[in-house]
């Protein structure tokens, strides 16, 4: 199958409206996005498009996220990643409001794809009547260092390894078992609070790292006692559901970044450029593909299997409708158009 690029257009912010920015991106329905601005008039087609009025629930149901959860339970490797400019709504789409915590939970209507997927996963596991072992790991890639967001103490760099059987993997990452919605949401919020964020001219809560939360699902169906010998010969299914919140692309001049913020921005942009390069090459027909440079960044190494390997991937591209963000919006649209042509073999 191919990745399913889903587009979400956020509303104009109060700052953009006061500044006099024009809305240059419009949803036409039936998966079409129209960009109309000086010297630019183009229409793009995608699996689904959600405009500024779309609810979090509508994005969950309309993006195919529920089917992705079910495929992960069936033993497939599934990934959803949010892609787009800084401040375009990626973290909100995946997690919901940034201010939420265990003490101050978000309104149920505002919860993002992650919490809704966790609820769906636990409901499905109960209805299927299967023994499930669920665990989660949570990493961030900050300045090309992979760091564990669940391990106690200050985040330290973990080595990224490669093996023939596992592909690229992170050595010594902590995986925490959970059995309830409260437990997995607690892990999500704890890890997110440790993630690197900063404020700059374009975004008061800019993610300065790429974050990857992976739910590992091991299952074995129930068998009657008389079939114990047959059951032991039946291998258990092992699926994964990975959520990737990418740091946003940004132009250092527009964000007013300097010092450490500038170093972070350059690191983010390099890894996103490597990701875009891999997507462009994977979009070519298999017979015309050259070497795919997954090793160019830690991000592309960890997403290698999701992008062009044995996984099933959902891409949620988030864009601002503002005329000031036109260049970055067009870049995101072109990347997502490339992603539509990538095929995987799950």
From TrEMBL:
Pfam families: Kinesin (PF00225). It comes from the Eukaryota. GO terms for cellular component: microtubule; microtubule associated complex. GO terms for molecular function: ATP binding; microtubule binding; microtubule motor activity. Gene3D superfamilies: Kinesin motor domain. Its main location: cytoplasm. One of its GO terms (biological process) is spindle elongation. SMART domains: KISc (SM00129). Keywords: ATP-binding, Cytoplasm, Cytoskeleton, Microtubule, Motor protein, Nucleotide-binding. InterPro entries: Kinesin-like_fam, Kinesin_motor_CS, Kinesin_motor_dom, Kinesin_motor_dom_sf, P-loop_NTPase. It is found in: Cytoplasm, Cytoskeleton. ATP binds at residues 84-91. Belongs to the TRAFAC class myosin-kinesin ATPase superfamily. Kinesin family. This is Kinesin-like protein. It comes from Tychaedon coryphoeus (Karoo scrub-robin). The gene is Kif12.
């Amino acid at each position: 199958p191919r990745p399913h690029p889903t587009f979400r257009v956020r509303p104009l912010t109060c700052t953009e409206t006061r500044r006099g920015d024009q809305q240059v991106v419009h949803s036409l329905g039936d998966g079409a996005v129209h960009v109309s601005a000086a010297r630019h008039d183009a229409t793009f087609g995608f699996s689904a498009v959600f405009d500024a009025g779309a609810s979090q629930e509508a994005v969950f149901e309309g993006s195919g996220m529920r089917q992705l959860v079910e495929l992960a339970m069936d033993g497939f490797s599934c990934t959803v990643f949010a892609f787009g400019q800084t401040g375009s709504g990626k973290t909100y789409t995946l997690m919901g409001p940034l201010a939420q915590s265990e003490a101050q939970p978000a309104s149920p209507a505002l919860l993002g794809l992650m919490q809704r997927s966790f609820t769906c996963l636990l409901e499905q596991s109960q209805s299927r009547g299967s023994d499930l072992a669920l665990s989660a790991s949570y990493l961030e890639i900050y300045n090309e260092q992979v760091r564990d967001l669940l391990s106690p103490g200050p985040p330290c760099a973990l080595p990224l390894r490669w093996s023939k059987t596992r592909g690229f993997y992170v050595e010594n990452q902590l995986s925490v078992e959970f059995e309830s919605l409260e437990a997995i949401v607690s892990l999500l919020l704890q890890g997110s609070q440790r993630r690197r964020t900063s404020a700059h001219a374009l975004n008061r809560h800019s993610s300065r790292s790429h974050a990857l939360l992976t739910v590992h699902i091991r299952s074995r169906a129930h068998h009657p006692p008389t079939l114990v010998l047959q059951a032991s010969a039946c291998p258990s299914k092992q699926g994964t559901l990975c959520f990737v919140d990418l740091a946003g692309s940004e132009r250092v001049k527009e964000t007013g970044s300097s010092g450490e913020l500038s170093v972070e921005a350059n690191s983010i942009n390099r890894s996103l450029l490597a990701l875009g390069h891999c997507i462009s090459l994977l979009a070519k027909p298999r017979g015309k593909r050259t070497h795919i440079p997954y090793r160019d960044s830690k991000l592309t190494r960890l997403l290698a299997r999701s992008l062009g390997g044995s996984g099933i991937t959902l891409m949620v591209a988030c864009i601002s409708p503002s005329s000031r963000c036109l260049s970055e919006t067009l870049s995101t649209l072109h990347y997502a158009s490339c992603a539509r042509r990538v095929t995987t073999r799950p």
